[in-house]
Specification:
The complex is a heterodimer.
Chain A (H helix, E strand, L loop, with lengths): L5 E5 L3 H13 L3 E6 L2 H11 L3 E5 L7 H11 L4 E5 L4 H6 L5 E6 L4 H48 L4 H15 L3 H11 L7
Parallel strand pairs in A: 1-2, 1-3, 3-4, 4-5
Helix pairs in contact in A: 2-3, 5-6, 5-7, 6-7
Chain B lengths: L1 H83 L2 H9 L2 H17 L3 E8 L4 E8 L2 E4 L12 H5 L7 E4 L3 E3 L9 E11 L5 E10 H11 L6 E5 L5 E3 L18 H4 L4 H6 L2 E6 L2 E8 L8 E4 L10 H4 L2 E7 L8 H53 L3 E6 L5 E4 L2 H6 L22 H14 L1 E9 L5 E12 L5 E10 L1 H47 L4 H28 L7 E4 H11 L10 E5 L6 E4 L1 H18 L4 E11 L2 E9 L7 H6 L15 H11 L3 E6 L5 E8 L4
Parallel strand pairs in B: 4-12, 20-22
Antiparallel strand pairs in B: 1-2, 1-7, 2-3, 4-6, 5-6, 6-7, 8-9, 8-13, 10-11, 11-13, 14-15, 14-18, 16-17, 17-18, 19-21, 22-23, 23-25, 24-25
The chains are: A alpha/beta, B alpha+beta.
Chain lengths: 196, 729
Amino acid sequence: MNTALRIAVADDEPFLRTYFQDVLPDLGHEVVGAAATGKELVELCQRTKPDLVISDIRMPDMDGIDAAAAISEDRPTPIILVSAFHDPEYIARAEQRYILAYLIKPVERAHLETAIAIVRRRFQEFESLRQETKDLKQALEDRKTIEKAKGLMMRKMRLSEADAFRTMQKLARDQNLKLVQVAQRILDADDSNPRR
Amino acid sequence: MAGFGGRSMNRTSAARRGRFWVRTAAVFLLLAVSIGSAATVIILQQLRTVRLVAESNERNHVGLQAGMIGADLAVVLSDLRVLTEALALKDFLATGASEDQGRLAAELQRFLESKSNYTQVRFLNERGNEIVRVGAGRGRTSVVPKALWRSQAGPQYIERAYELSAGQVFVSPFDLDFEANPTGPPQPTIRFASPVFDRDGDMRGIVVLNYDGNALLAALRQASISSAGRTMLLNADGYWLYGGADADWAFMYPERGEDNFAKRYPDAWPAVLGSDAGQVATASGLFTYRSVQPFQVDGLTVRLQAPHDLRTVPLRTGYVWKVLTFVPPTQLPGGRGETRSRLGLLYGVLLPVLAGLAWIISRYREEREQAFEDLRVNEERFRQLAENIDEVFWMIDLPSGKLAYVGPAFSKIWGQSCDSPLSAAGVWPTGVHHDDVSAVARALVDVVETGGFELEYRIVRPDGQERLIRDRGFVVRDEAGRPYRVAGLAEDVTELRERQQRELQTQRLAAIGEAMTGLAHESRNALQRSQAGLEMLAKRIKDRPDAEAILGEIQQSQRHLHRLYEEVRGYAVPIRPEREPCDLGELVHDVWEQLSVARVGRDDQLVDHRNGQSLVCSVDHFSIGQVVRNVLENSLGAADPAIVTVAYEPTDCAGAPALRLRFHDNGPGLDAQQLQRVFEPFFTTKSRGTGLGMAISKRIVESHGGTIDVRNSAGGGAEVLITLPRGSV
């Protein structure tokens, strides 16, 4: 739980970048880089692939929210926004997927500590849910492919459903492939498949 | 507006024009009937008088004529008597001598010369032979020679004279003598005959005297100018002797038939025939008549002859003429013709005059009515204005200073009846706050010089309520420019001023809010830097407790400053409640739990009385929570341990169902100043408060359409009443 996180920070004020670099290690984390602008932050994240991003909103050339969107697109990363502003416009824009906390300046070490802990936890839950969903989706896709291949075999070779399935299992064992890979090959080999 | 008004004006003006003419006609009729009939009566009366005079004149005329004829003919009878008794005749009868015959002729000639109204005198002997004949014609008389004498066959009436006794006279009808003047027109003649007796008393002949009718008729003609019409003379059978124009003497000419009065004026004839004197008005005209009996001479016996038969009739009834005047209607003064022309003239002049008069009268009436209508409309407008405006319209007469009018809005604003608008001192208006009395009195006195005033003063109503009045007075001057009245409008501006105050407050807050928002943002960045600096510094002085203590103080101040900024900003930004159904009981409990940090080490209590009712209201959960938090924090600050009681009561707020939260604590309550200023921003009794909590609470509650009040409970402690509309739950 309390393992060190690799954190990327961004603020246009050098003093606050210094502050983050000073205080975050005290909380047991590593600051992988401090960016002064949104673009720098995006670049930093592409390069260092941090576990967490803490960013100001108002920055030259790209603000924190746009940067967060760019970073998340590249790689799911939890993001904490820190700003002196909490206009409804900002709040609405910040409601995107990977922004997990929005702190109003002035923030204290205690605020950061709490926010980081909660965000890490939430992100883990979030990620595991995401993975679960992804796995389920893949399973469903595989199932569909296998069913299609099975249907094809039953039709072409006039096999019963059980015989078709058994044939596919045997092929997989023989060729040391997953059942779905076999099914895909069967579908690929079929001339009548409209995708060919 | 203009079009509509214009059309309706046209309609009413058309109706008014119609009414105008109807009225004109009515007035005209009335005038025509009243004045016309009166004038007609007067004219008819006048004409009647004229006619009566005219009729009387005719009667007089006829009477005079009749008298004159009678007098004329009476002389004839006496003349004849003289002739029959003449000495020369007696002598001749005694002698029969021819010189006596000559003397007789001379005598008769002298007689004829002395009289102008006889045309002939003759003496006939007892055998009917003419002895002497003297004629008169063209102003001379002559003894007619025997050779020129006509035969004595003569008219039969001559013979009748022989039958008479002495003194009796035979009178012929008045007719024409065709022989007297063979070459000229026939001579109107009456023949008189009387027997002659000699000295021995034997009848020896007759004297025949021809009376010249022309003299009589000329006299009639001369006198007829005194009549308005035509003078006529009729014989007893109704034939004209005179005045009948072409019908005169018709009986003498058998070929002309029965051309007489009876035939020409059959409607008048019976009356004329039936009485001796009178007047008869017929369609053809007015006839005035009188019988003439020329021979009413006492002691004289007269035989007379009716025109067509020779019967002897009593003189008194038989020998009758009728003198008449005939006035046709057109010539009769005051008669039909004149009546017609007079009345025609009257109406010809009168009716146009009356029509003009009727027009003027109804025009005048209409103008009066219009003026009256205008007045009524004006008054109605004034009344509506005075009665419906919210302001009190008042008027004071000068110089008496008497209140002439006070509008009905008085009772509403002053909270008392309109009967007593004057103060105890008898001046307008009553109930002025004692601080303002002198200013009001001065304004009312000075207005005559200043011409007008505008003044705000307070009044205290009988129910103790204080209202702010704005009163504008001005002087009304008469045509000569002298002030004779002060009029004014007094209005209740209490709410207006309060609203203006609130608006001002809102505007001020908005301005502060804008400034504060910018300030807060900037301050956050500054505070963030400061905070970062503090934390970094704290790490570096860990080994120095004295410096850490100072740093702790700085940290504390910074947090206070931060909170202050946030609260001011929170008070200044516009509040837009986002309502959703919320159980206020639960909300109070949640807030109480949130305050557990502040209650550490204390023994505070929250007692609530839910009474099993629904406490759900549609409110902004967050902001109402903030209000409850402020209230509870105040209670916690007022006593230790604090016992806070919350009661929930259903009520209504501006007619809508509402819930009232009554918070009561066991603190000391609030003093007068605190009660008055509790909702003022930045008013605080706490050393560390911003003084915005209750002000924000009030704004939040009011933004929900509710009310918040603070007072001291009767049993001690402060009481906060929050009323919130239920909203759509």
